[in-house]
Design goal:
Elements: H1 8-11, E1 20-22, E2 37-40, E3 45-47, E4 55-62, E5 69-75, E6 78-83, E7 88-90, E8 98-104, E9 108-120, E10 128-135, E11 142-143, E12 155-158, E13 161-162, E14 169-170, E15 176-181, H2 185-192, H3 200-210, E16 226-232, E17 245-252, E18 255-259, E19 288-293
Domain ADYC: 91-262
Organism: Nannocystis pusilla
Protein name: ADYC domain-containing protein
Length: 295
């Protein structure tokens, strides 16, 4: 799989952004919607689809070096392991590792996920971008994450799980991991700088914002690639002085805190909840503000 062509400086950009591309997916995987949305790093079974009866079981963590994994965990967005012979590995040292999953979706299935590349967003960054490939017991390796054109994209590892129906982060115990594709809202928001392990409420607000989930019920009101202006008060996204835009909404982890219905990303979007119009910036209690262009 090709590495991301952007430089480390481009990937770690957190200053002025003229536009951000948004999309309707919370996360995105190939193979007919198969999700690795929630598994335990240390071998426990988890219901990964928020009560649907589909289970994801990490059965084996196979290192390319041949050592046995005693424990695995996330430090920020970096996967790390401790081996039974006392070695501590992470980052690029885990390239070639294979995670073996047992799945139950009406009938037993097996899947393998291979780490084929690992790139730190920039020197010292907490965010690692992983090239991940997937296969079953007899198939060929294929990219786990693909964009709307079918091209491979990287993923990040996040120590949380989300309900795929409502888009809400699920309250859980520790040790849970989502493999978040960078073209989906979970991964995209982390790449933009809203690290869920640092500013979880901002990250959750961002996933609502990216999907235009105004009512916080998991219903998206946008399509892939619509540009938006993004602003917050903590300096991750700053105002672009050259951009001409109209304020669309402000966002909390529960959805929009205010909305200007004449300025939605999709003209005439049908919003079922009642939201006050946006006034002075951040007066609604929102964490992130969005604007749309061309209105």
């Amino acid at each position: 799989m090709d590495d991301d062509p952007r430089t480390a400086d481009e990937l770690d950009e957190v200053s002025v952004r003229e536009t951000e591309a948004n999309g309707f997916r919370l996360n995105g995987f190939r193979l007919n919607g198969f999700r690795l949305n929630g598994f335990r790093l240390n071998g426990f079974r988890l219901n990964g689809d928020a009560g649907s009866g589909s289970y994801i079981d990490l059965e084996q963590f196979q290192l390319a070096q041949g050592w046995t994994v005693a424990q695995a965990w996330l430090e920020g967005g970096e996967l790390r392991v401790q081996t039974t012979n006392g070695m501590s590995l992470g980052g690029t040292q885990l390239v070639g590792a294979v995670l073996h999953f047992g799945l139950v979706e009406g009938a037993p299935k097996k899947r393998k996920v291979r780490i084929s590349g690992a790139t730190q967003q920039s020197p010292g960054s907490q965010l690692w971008l992983y090239n991940l490939e997937i296969k079953d017991n007899v198939g060929a390796w294929e990219p786990l994450c693909v964009d709307s054109l079918g091209l491979p994209v990287q993923a990040i590892m996040v120590g949380d799980v989300w309900d795929p129906e409502t888009g809400s982060r699920v309250t859980t115990t520790s040790d849970l991991v989502t493999l978040a594709c960078l073209d989906g809202a979970i991964g995209k928001c982390a790449e933009w700088g809203y690290y869920p392990w640092v500013v979880p409420e901002y990250h959750q607000a961002c996933t609502r914002m990216v999907r235009a989930d105004y009512c916080g019920d998991g219903v998206s009101h946008t399509i892939e690639g619509v540009p938006i202006h993004v602003l917050d008060e903590i300096g991750i996204e700053e105002v672009d002085p050259n951009a001409i835009y109209t304020i669309e909404a402000e966002w909390s982890s529960a959805g929009a805190t205010c909305l200007n219905p004449e300025s939605t990303r999709l003209s005439g979007a049908s919003v079922t909840c009642e939201l006050a119009a946006c006034g002075e910036s951040f007066a609604s209690g929102g964490l992130i503000q969005t604007g749309v262009f061309g209105l």
